From TrEMBL:
<dbReference type="GO" id="GO:0008324">
    <property type="term" value="F:monoatomic cation transmembrane transporter activity"/>
</dbReference>
<feature type="transmembrane region" description="Helical">
    <location>
        <begin position="296"/>
        <end position="317"/>
    </location>
</feature>
<feature type="transmembrane region" description="Helical">
    <location>
        <begin position="32"/>
        <end position="50"/>
    </location>
</feature>
<dbReference type="GO" id="GO:0006813">
    <property type="term" value="P:potassium ion transport"/>
</dbReference>
<dbReference type="InterPro" id="IPR006153">
    <property type="entry name" value="Cation/H_exchanger_TM"/>
</dbReference>
<feature type="transmembrane region" description="Helical">
    <location>
        <begin position="6"/>
        <end position="25"/>
    </location>
</feature>
<dbReference type="Pfam" id="PF02080">
    <property type="entry name" value="TrkA_C"/>
</dbReference>
<dbReference type="GO" id="GO:0015297">
    <property type="term" value="F:antiporter activity"/>
</dbReference>
<protein>
    <submittedName>
        <fullName>Putative sodium/hydrogen exchanger</fullName>
    </submittedName>
</protein>
<comment type="similarity">
    <text>Belongs to the monovalent cation:proton antiporter 2 (CPA2) transporter (TC 2.A.37) family.</text>
</comment>
<feature type="transmembrane region" description="Helical">
    <location>
        <begin position="271"/>
        <end position="290"/>
    </location>
</feature>
<feature type="transmembrane region" description="Helical">
    <location>
        <begin position="87"/>
        <end position="107"/>
    </location>
</feature>
<dbReference type="InterPro" id="IPR036721">
    <property type="entry name" value="RCK_C_sf"/>
</dbReference>
<feature type="transmembrane region" description="Helical">
    <location>
        <begin position="148"/>
        <end position="169"/>
    </location>
</feature>
<dbReference type="GO" id="GO:1902600">
    <property type="term" value="P:proton transmembrane transport"/>
</dbReference>
<keyword id="KW-0406">Ion transport</keyword>
<dbReference type="GO" id="GO:0016020">
    <property type="term" value="C:membrane"/>
</dbReference>
Amino acid sequence: MPHIPLLPELIIVFGFCIIAIFLCFRVKLPAIVGVLITGVLVGPGGFGVVDDPHAVESIAELGVILLMFTIGLELSLGELKALKKPVLIGGGLQVLFTIALIFELGLTQGFDTGPAILAGFLVALSSTAIVIKLLQERSELAAPHGRIMLAVLIFQDIIVAPMMLLTPFLGSDSPDLGRSMMLLGAKAVGVIVVVWFLAKFVVPRLLLAVLRTRSRELFLLSVLVLCLAIAMFTAWVGLSISLGAFLAGLIIAQTDYALSALEGVHPFRDVFTSLFFVSIGMLLDVQFMVNNLPLVLGAAAAVLLCKAVVAGGATVVLGYPLRIAVLVGMGLSQVGEFSFVLAKVGSDAGLLTPENYQLFLAISILTMLAAPFCIAGSHRVSRWVSELPGLGAWRERSMVQEEPRSTLKDHLIIVGFGLGGRQLAQAAKSSNIAYCIVEMNPDTVRTERTKGEPISHGDAGLPEVLKHLGVEQAKVLAVVVADPLSARRVTQVAKSLNPAIRLVVRTRYVAEVDPLRHMGADDVVAEEFETSIEVFARVLRAYLVPHVTIERYAREVRQEGYELLRRGQPVHNPLHTLDNAFSGFEVSGLTVEEGAVLDGQTLEESGLRKRHGLTVVAVQRGEELFANPDGAFRLQAGDVAYLFGSQQDFASRVGLFEVRHKAWA
């Protein structure tokens, strides 16, 4: 039997990956954790199932290329514009201050300038794959802290390319480093010009020609060749191959075909990226980690703490509450996947000794393993920090920005000013209902104040903020925020301050209804449930079910449906009776032919309803439609009459509309 290189190793690696990912799924850990552990176990530092980690390294590099390519594909200029401030300021501060802090710590530990800067680069990046996956699973990506984390991760994904460009020069002993950097800058400008030309004139026309063939295989191959070709071009001119893949993604992202490209590349990316993380895990020397366990654990804890403090501080600078800062800080406290790529570049440049490289790998893998637990426990920690006695005065001052306490009575408090909050405020204004708004996004608050909205900046989950808004005198409080945990906290705090207040809470899923009601919510509106009602209502309208019947059914479902849907029990459906009553009936259109019996007759003269059991619901005459015509309406040749009746009556009365039928049946 012929030997196929790498096949045994790949079978072993992917077999272990399947087991590890399945176990991670059962204990609700991200798949990337299982993949990293797989690499540790099968590598030479573990059970030694795969003796040579470099055997799969060349294939694993494809994972990095495709990962960078999809990052470029997913970077929407519109999204970047909407998140401009948190991306540039939040992300910039987080990266800059993390690098500065780690650089200073590195110098105190005896590192030279180059390795100390590289250490800052490595620690500054967080794991996009882990953070986004966990936020999506927890339905927190649209929450304020989720949006900030997304913005910072976008900045990190952008800044990793310049880091890759700069890293090889950090270890240069050449006195002409400035000349080398100028040459690098010239190459970068040249690459940007080429990329701009391709994006503007070549790639859109090329992909359009490919798509006209309607061949998915040809399109996918074209996208992959484009990605690899640009990656090879950047490597040829001396820049990072990953940077080339990123630029290739940006090129296609500006066309109309980015989504199709992303769908085609995703499966390959996931497979090869998994292989990349396995190869990283293989590089870990378990014996080194065991021998230096106190150092590894202490350094990992220091990295988690430093990153949490810096990211949280950047969030505070953006104007967000302390609670949100803690959530963001703990969420971004791990080391990222692109740090492994940078570490490899730094190792090749002589910036990392083998011992320091192993120390970095051990620290990074530990912080990644800790990430799910940090994010899961961040809400509890944020509440504890927010309630510390020494922070009370600062917290209240930062939340309400020294505004006067509300003097309104029987007013409406709106928590959150997204689309739902805006619509509610407009309805309250039209109905002359006094209201005030509390929102955590400082930019939204600043913009809406210029429009005259009574909006305050603050965290409604804090008692002093709700007191400042007059919750004790308010009649209704409406919670329309995207974060389910924030909605629960606001509900609990508001009800404890004013048991008589009516709480209306919007949530995304039906599963949130019971917890919110137990915490004191009077009305809970689940988007998932209301969307299902709107869908069935539109479907029934398409089948000409009367509007009053649809409304009655929707009303009954709303009254009983939440409880019944959660229990999985059938809901009494009045349409079942309707369906049985009209079984065998239909609406059909028949054309009046010239010279037919009905040609020139009024509906009353035709006797269609009285004698033949057919009801005319509408008549189409040319471009004009006559709905529900009365008995005096006169039919003409060419009219299309839409009739309601039984299938049997239709079958026996079709001749009334045709020329051959000269007498009543």
